[in-house]
């Protein structure tokens, strides 16, 4: 498809504000984790309701992402982006000012709703703004680094704000991010007019996929708390399977589907969604266990434990903006994604060697650096390839699929790996316990916890290895520097379709 418009002269300035908004959404998934103990004590949140501070956000966010992505296609990405920012800021203000449990939980659910508008709008804005191959590589390198490192940044920011101010600032800080991003969006972001989708909204599709994803994400949450064979867990998984199957059936028959099946049946995009979702399972599990390990076993403060993740963030930035960006125009995406996930798996395997008396420089530092380099290198082409080749009117929903795979992956990772860690710790205790006095021995208790963490991290290593294999086998796209091709372009050689974004 020939070029029809000149590049936006303010596109790089626009990227700053798009990236800032994405950082806010990603870090909010973890920034509240650090502040949660303080919030629980301040508001008198019961142990039973504690998980809902996290779950209320993830359910709304994960369940409404595809709806938010399609709204961006229908309503305009810039409009959706600004509304998402304003709503997220308002929800954060309500949460920060919460005087009871219900107010905080409601605010967190609202954050998830507006985050589901904001995240796909941000990624699709990058996709439609940067169409030159070299510029696109740089833009997605920056975006990929932020998307990958944002969760770790949240751990640092949450620790700093909670320790120096109070837990409420873990929410209030979003207002600052959002206001700056809104001002920037109004002033410099421009959206190509020809990318708007003029079809009606697929209401049955919205209801089916939202209910199905909510049931799926909540099912993993209940698996973590109630067990994998509990009736509520099995019932939620069954309901999710039925609802999502019905969604696929409806989408294959309606004239204007919420998620055109061509978006996910494309071999390369499907490979990206699957391998990226699996990689996120391992990564989120790592954040969970290393945070516990640093604070409970190593005795780190909230700030110090957050800062301990800095080498991983640095590795992600280097992997994404230097390695990935420089090689993306020279090698096939799978030759970045598969080695990237493999390098991350090696880093994860090193981290699995943690002991009660491990030192940070000899075990954690090299493991975190390799994790960051690997994930950053893989994230960058994955983010770009996930929106390559889609029709302009599908850019928002294709972007939403990236976020959905990450969100579902994070939910699975937290539940699955936490269950494995708990089980491994219990098995270790049962085989090493000599008397009840052992249960009061700090070294004994810490050793049992670290054993559980180590076993779970080994499982995360295996998942990352699987992610590497799937990326290599499924992703067969050519070097992303050729002429533009879009879904449905019959002139494209079926055996070698260079997937790029339309404009």
TrEMBL record:
It is found in: Cell membrane. Residues 14-479 form the Major facilitator superfamily (MFS) profile domain. The chain crosses the membrane at residues 12-32, 52-69, 81-103, 109-128, 140-161, 167-189, 201-220, 232-250, 271-294, 306-323, 335-354, 360-382, 456-475. GO terms for cellular component: plasma membrane. It is a multi-pass membrane protein. Keywords: Antibiotic resistance, Cell membrane, Membrane, Transmembrane, Transmembrane helix, Transport. CDD domains: MFS_MMR_MDR_like. Pfam families: MFS_1. GO terms for biological process: response to antibiotic. GO terms for molecular function: transmembrane transporter activity. NCBIfam families: efflux_EmrB (TIGR00711). This is Puromycin resistance protein pur8. It comes from Actinacidiphila bryophytorum. The lineage of its organism: Bacteria, Bacillati, Actinomycetota, Actinomycetes, Kitasatosporales. The gene is pur.
């Amino acid at each position: 498809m020939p070029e029809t418009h000149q590049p936006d002269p303010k596109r790089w300035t626009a990227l700053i504000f798009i990236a800032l908004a994405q950082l806010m959404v990603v870090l909010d998934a973890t920034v509240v984790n650090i502040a949660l103990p303080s919030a629980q004590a301040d508001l008198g949140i019961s142990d039973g309701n504690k998980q809902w501070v996290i779950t209320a956000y993830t359910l709304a966010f994960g369940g409404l992402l595809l709806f938010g992505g399609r709204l961006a296609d229908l309503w305009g990405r810039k409009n959706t982006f600004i509304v998402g920012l304003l709503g997220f800021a308002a929800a954060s203000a309500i949460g920060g000012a919460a005087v009871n449990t219900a107010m905080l939980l409601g605010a967190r659910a609202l954050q998830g709703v507006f985050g589901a508008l904001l995240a796909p709008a941000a990624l699709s804005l990058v996709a439609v703004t940067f169409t030159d191959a070299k510029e696109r590589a740089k833009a997605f390198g920056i975006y990929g680094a932020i998307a990958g490192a944002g969760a770790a940044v949240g751990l640092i920011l949450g620790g700093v704000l909670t320790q120096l101010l109070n837990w409420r600032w873990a929410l209030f800080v979003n207002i600052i991010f959002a206001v700056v991003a809104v001002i920037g969006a109004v002033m410099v972001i421009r959206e190509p007019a020809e990318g708007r989708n003029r079809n009606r909204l697929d209401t049955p599709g919205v209801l089916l996929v939202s209910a199905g994803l909510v049931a799926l994400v909540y099912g993993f949450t209940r698996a973590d708390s109630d067990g994998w064979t509990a009736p509520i867990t099995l019932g939620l998984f069954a309901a999710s399977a039925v609802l999502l199957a019905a969604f696929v059936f409806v989408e294959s028959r309606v004239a204007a589907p919420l998620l055109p099946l061509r978006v996910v049946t494309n071999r390369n995009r499907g490979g990206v969604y699957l391998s990226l979702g699996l990689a996120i399972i391992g990564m989120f599990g790592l954040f969970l266990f290393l945070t516990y390990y640093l604070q409970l076993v190593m005795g780190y403060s909230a700030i110090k434990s957050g800062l301990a993740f800095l080498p991983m963030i640095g590795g992600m930035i280097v992997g994404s903006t230097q390695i990935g960006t420089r090689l993306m125009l020279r090698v096939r995406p799978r030759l970045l994604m598969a080695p990237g996930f493999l390098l991350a798996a090696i880093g994860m395997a090193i981290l699995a060697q943690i002991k009660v008396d491990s030192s940070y420089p000899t075990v954690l530092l090299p493991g975190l650096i390799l994790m960051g380099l690997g994930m950053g290198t893989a994230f960058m082409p994955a983010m770009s390839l996930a929106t390559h080749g889609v029709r302009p009117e599908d850019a928002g929903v294709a972007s939403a699929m990236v976020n959905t795979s990450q969100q579902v992956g994070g939910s699975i990772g937290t539940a699955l790996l936490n269950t494995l860690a708990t089980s491994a710790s219990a098995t270790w205790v049962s085989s090493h316990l000599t008397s009840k006095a052992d249960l009061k021995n700090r070294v004994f208790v810490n050793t049992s916890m670290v054993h559980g963490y180590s076993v779970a991290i080994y499982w995360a290593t295996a998942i990352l290895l699987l992610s590497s294999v799937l990326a290599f086998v499924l992703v067969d796209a050519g070097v992303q520097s050729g002429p533009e091709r879009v879904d449905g372009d019959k002139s494209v050689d079926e055996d070698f379709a260079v997937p790029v974004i339309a404009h």
